[in-house]
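HOLO CASE FILE
Compound: GLP
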Amino acid sequence: MLVIINPTHEQTSIQAARIVANQIRSKPRSVLGLSTGKTPLGLYGELIRCHREEGLDFSGVTTFNLDEYVGIPRDHPQSFYLQIHRNFLDQINIKQENTHIPDGSSSDIEATCIEYEQAIRDSGGIDLQILGIGRTGHIGFNEPTSSLASRTRLKTLSDETIQDNRKIGEDIPAVAITMGIGSILDARQLLMLASGNSKTTAVAKAIEGPITSSVSASALQLHPNVTVLLDEAAAAGLTHRGYYDRVVEQTSKYSPERLGLE
Ligand code: GLP
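Model generated. C-alpha cells follow.
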C-alpha cells in the first residue's frame, strides 16, 4: 500500500487527478470505478479542467459507480445518479451509454445487483477504482460487519452513515445498493482518498489496524495495488508516518508514475 500525505486536500485532489489522467492516457478504453460524497469532488473538478484545457479524452472510458440509495428516483436531490452526473459525467465527453450506476428504483433489486456484476465483468473489469471512506470505516456502503467477500447487493445503512449523508432538512433512505468488498477488490488498482479530522480514526484503522469486517476499508490491505491519498488531518492517527514519507521519496525515483508524476 502506497500512502501519500499532502499538506492539503486540494493537493491530494490534483495528484489523484494526475494518476487517473495517466491511466486514461495509457489506456483510452479504461474502466473507472467512481465514488460519490464530498471527498472526490476536487478530483472530479480537476479532471474536468484537464478535459477542457488539456483535451483529456473520455470518449473511450467506461464508468461504474459504487453505490446508490434504494427507493428514490434518479432525479431526487439525494440520488447518487444526480450527484455524479452534475459533478462529473455531464461535464466531460463520456458516452452516456458507457456510464453505469446501480438502479435504486428497480422493482427487482436482486436481479439489478446480479446484472450490475455481470456488466462489470462484460466491460473487462475495473482498471482503477476511486474510493472515499466513511466515518465507520466503510467503502461504498459496506457498513461494519459486511463480508470481505461480498458482491453487489442490498445493504442497510448504519445510523452514523445516515446522519453523515443527510442534508439539512432532508431524509435519506435506510437502504442502498452497493458493490461488495469482493467486487471492489477485483479492480486492478484502488485509489482511496480521505480528508479532514472526522476521518482520522477510520483511516488509521483501515491502514494500520487488523483486517476485519468491522472496518471494511481494512480489506484494502489484501489488495496488491492500492494508493491512499490523505491530507494532514486525515493522516494524523498513523503511527508509521515517517516511513510512508520515505516510501514516497523512493517511489518518486523508481516508479514516478505511481505518484502521478509522469
Ligand atoms: C458515503 C458513500 C461512500 C463515501 C462516504 C464518504 O457513505 N457511500 O462511498 O466514501 O459516504 O463520504 P464523504 O466523502 O462525503 O465524506
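CASE NOTES: The chain has a mean pLDDT of 96. Residues 35-39, 66-67, 132-134, 140-141, 161, 165 surround GLP (CB under 6 Å).
CLOSED: yes
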